Amino acid sequence: MGADTYLKTIEDTIKNGRFKDNWDSLSGFEAPSWYEKAKFGIFIHWGVYSVPAFKSEWYPRNMYIQDSEEYKHHLAVYGEHKDFGYKDFIPMFKAEKFNADEWAALFRQAGAKYIMPVAEHHDGFQMYKSGISPFNAYEMGPKRDLIGEMKEAFEKQDMTFCVSSHRAEHWFFLSHGKEFDSDIKEPLVRGDFYWPSMPEPDHHDLYGSPPNQTYLEDWLIRCCELVDQYQPKVFYFDWWIQTEAFKPYLKKFAAYYYNRAMEWGEEVAINYKHDAFHFGTAVPDIERGQFAELKPYFWQTDTAVAKNSWCYTPNNDYKTSNEIIRDLVDIVSKNGSLLLNVGPKADGSIPDEDKQILLEIGQWLKVNGEAVYDSTFWRIFGEGPTEIEEGQFTDGKSKVFTSEDIRFTVKGGTLYATLLVYPENGVVAIKALKEKSIHFQGIIEEINVLGFDEKPAWERTEEALIIQTRHVQSSAPVVFSIKIN
Hints:
Elements lengths: L2 H14 L6 H4 L6 H6 L1 E5 L14 H4 L6 H9 L22 H10 L4 E7 L25 H11 L3 E2 L1 E3 L4 H4 L39 H18 L3 E4 L9 H18 L4 E4 L10 E5 L11 E6 L16 H13 L2 E7 L9 H17 L13 E2 L22 E6 L2 E6 L7 E4 L13 E6 L7 E4 L4 E4 L9 E7 L1
Parallel strand pairs: 1-2, 1-9, 2-3, 2-4, 4-5, 5-6, 6-7, 7-8, 8-9
Antiparallel strand pairs: 10-11, 11-12, 12-17, 13-16, 14-17, 15-16
């Protein structure tokens, strides 16, 4: 389908659908019930940048910045940029060990309910069969529809399929290659891998050179093509779409996507950052961070198993599974969901470190998942002395929780209290459940500790609900299920 025809299809769908391309109409969006219940998903950063696997997925940009570590590495390993540029990694991206069914089995074992591969990163290489540009995984590199294979495998395992697009930043992502003798040269035309490589914004100017109509229409069509071909249930956007030039096109995309979902009879959502979307028209996402307090609206954190990179590198600085589990519990208690990223190798295999972390999370969720899945927030999210630093990019430092840090969720007639760090002496004090508490004045009928045979002793005092165990020991969070009346 040509660009003009696709744009007309988009306009016709908006014209004839319930959702129009304005914020008033899009405010009719409601977060999907399946999404609010899922709580835990897997993000996947995998692409041509996984071939050099140096520093991070921003290698394609940084390799063209003179005197950067990536630039020096590229010269030392691959030679002059005019002779071997980023495009020359594409034939090396073969995905020869990629097996979507194996990935699906692993992610299911990890306890994930939804999976979100990056369909196109800033580098502009499409991981799927596309009619827009030949620079896609079906025509080059692996010569396979990688996104299509993932969708089929994940849905067979009853996991919800989603996609992410980071295309917006491609406007400037490779622009530094024009500053010296590299393989990025004018003329660059629509459909070229390096097109358009325009001047990059600095930290004080989000715009740089605002995207032109041709680029914005191309961006819109790429997004709608993903919707039409793969029917994702969540569509995630990275940053830079919040800039003014994108606003009319964001509204068109949202209206198109929501209307198409109504045709399918499905509940879908869009993830956004930085107020790119009007509040209430999509689901807000916090990159590598979280909220300090409970929110009345559903939200998501996206973070990675590694602190330093979203993609695979041999030197990734990994978090521990217990760190991630504690963050998951904290996020869910505040009405959020955790999207956890892994970075496969270029050959399609998932690193052993990523696997181990996922399996350990899955083992914990197998025992304690009833406090997470299908749960909702309580009157307060929790208690304890440890303060969560709010905002983006705050997950670089490990949080030091104590045995007084407790998080609450509720499902039906059960209140769950999760001890982020279990006390060595087995004595737990939950202040929010004390006698005559302003938060809870009901009747506690029974208390159990998930995953342990021991029946805990307990009593309510004027200071706290005191729970005593003798044999419970765990380096991971411990969950009490409290039957209430």
